[in-house]
Fold these 3 entries.
Entry 1:
Amino acid sequence: MSALIAEDEIVHEVDLVWLEDISRLDYVRQSLDRLPTRRGKPAYHRDGRMVGYAQLGPKARPSRSGAFRRRVFWLLPHDRDTDPAGLYATGAPAEAVDARTLAPGSKGYKTERSEGGPMSSATRERLP
């Protein structure tokens, strides 16, 4: 969860790769996943979809198990982008942040928009 991601856990990030246009998203969920490599698109095993991921620089060291902790950004089927009137019509999940506040090595933060304030134009277009 974003509140639990410490700056020292993401200090070796060199890039964030987005698989979707983040300007169209009010928020993304983020987590630190244990992955076998520093770079490249990781496998995704959750419901929903992966919308981005972090790449680590050469100074990042694996854990004793050989895994690297990398951020993965994702959305679930009931998130606001696909269900604007649903569970997160207002508010956002605990691990959600406004994707436009993210950068390599920066946790990002929630904004009025990510908490259900003024919706993005993409979300407004999807409303019935």
Entry 2:
Amino acid sequence: MAETNPIELQKALKGAPYPADRDKLVAVAKKNKAGSDMVEKISHLDQKSFESPADVQKAVFGTQ
């Protein structure tokens, strides 16, 4: 299985409307047929809402 990386995250969240809450991002990832690891990672983020894709990336991967 592929390692979770920023490119896979971008693909999973393609078309997500921002600002978005965690549940909306999970729904978008599922719609985009993201892998179960990616969906799990998004669904367990501590932060509940995100203003941009960069916010999501920071929450998933730390400061990058």
Entry 3:
Amino acid sequence: MTETTTKTRARPAAVILTPSAEQRIADLMRQAPEGAIGVKLSTPRRGCSGLAYSVDYVTEEAKFDEKIETPGGVFYIDGASVLYLVGSTMDWVEDDFTAGFVFNNPNAKGSCGCGESFTV
């Protein structure tokens, strides 16, 4: 009887973080409230198009969250949101008037005029 071996391969992260986004996560973790273990991205239902991006501190790891180790801290993706985010790039952009995370999401089929929400 021959034994079969299952080989697993590392899968790419659902979301690619730019160096600027990784730096922002590091900055957030330096000023994080006590008990925060990382920063978490989720896609709650909100806005005129249906889903929105939400980035918040997280104090405990949820079973199905995707975990991405970055140089400045742990970045989590809500397990229920991964499907909507696979293949996305997350960047941190600052200019004279605004600063925020910007998402290039190939799964988004449309967005609202203000850019707050998206559809898949």
